[in-house]
Amino acid sequence: MEIAGLPTPVFCGVDWAEDHHDIALVDAGGQQVAKVRIGDDAAGFAQLMAVLAEHGDSEDAPIPVAIETSRGLLVACLRVTGRPVFSINPLAVARYRDRHSVARKKSDAVDAAALANILRTDMAAHRPLPADSELVQAIAVLARAQQDAVWARGQAHNKLRSQLREFYPAILNAFAQHKQGLCSREARSILAAAPTPTMAAKLTRRRLQSLLKQAGRVRGIQAEAERLHEVFKRDYLHQLPQVEAALGHQTSALLRQLNTACDNADQLAEAVTQAFEEHPDGPVIRSFPGLAALTGARVLAEIGDDRARFASAESLKAYAGSAPVTRASGKSCKVMSRKVKNQRLAAVGYVWAFNSLTRSPGARAHYDRRRAAGDRHVAAQRNLFNRFMGMLFHCLQNSHTYDEAVAFPLASAGLRATAA
After folding, report:
1. Residue 145 vs residues 102, 124, 139, 251, 338: alpha-carbon distances, Å
2. 7 pLDDT more than 70
């Protein structure tokens, strides 16, 4: 077994836990040469480094480590040492464990030894964690947190909307056509001042104008206040007074949750955008139609900036979930969408493909061609995303920005012919 041309006669497996970790080292013949339990602290990490050094670990030939996670302080510190760290799927570890014991015995020490033996026997089938830069690791933290905040905002919005349908149709009618709906600052400002329909009906035009100004509106304030006043004054069905008051208190609580989710999403979006603008891959990624700073940061967060991470464009496409999977057995042959993928990258991929339809004539032509061939909307979007991922791999490897004429030559030639 070799890594970067250097012999690695010893392999390390780490079965991690919340307050301790079990360590096992095996040699090339499968003999366990060390077994130790360390604490989840600086002293424990120093003990691990001492055990590795005792068994031949050095800066030129670091002992590779297998562990069932890609996150946490232990993994971060192991990566800083420059050694190959392999994140092994827990299901794979369970299958390997069965190779050594038909009795299905299990312990932390056994799992650590199984992880070490995975590297000893099948290291070529696994890939170490990428050597991403510190900046891109920070972008990944921020981008994923912002994406989680957006999902939390959606959940908070849905809970609030479901609540308002029970007793407050006026506020739903008032912001039914608003782009952001109840998530808009105007809707949240008015809902905070009038959490019940009875209170909303008592809002004067002047009070509505004041609330709109507090929400940041600068144009058409008087007309919007007049419209809202008319909506709130309409005749609606009402709950009993005490029930309506109780629902109003519950609405205020749900509104506070929505306000927090909106603030978190906005603040994290600003932070991730600022970090993304500092990365040298930013101009290349943003040159693609359909990608802005926030969506571009999400793409960069998931693919990283280690150029050796993906051996080819096909491996990147498979990681993103845009490449199909073929299942062939005997006379049966099925081509299906990929289920095992990076879900975050796949989620931003559909947004990317959809936004590109109005920004790239070539992307639009490609999508229309796939639809005409019988693809449904989602399948056509996924195919377009798959093509973009191949282009992105090429551009990042060669430090080229996106070129519409090169990406979609047939569509570009057709546009030039039409113009002539």
Report:
1. 42, 33, 10, 26, 25
2. no
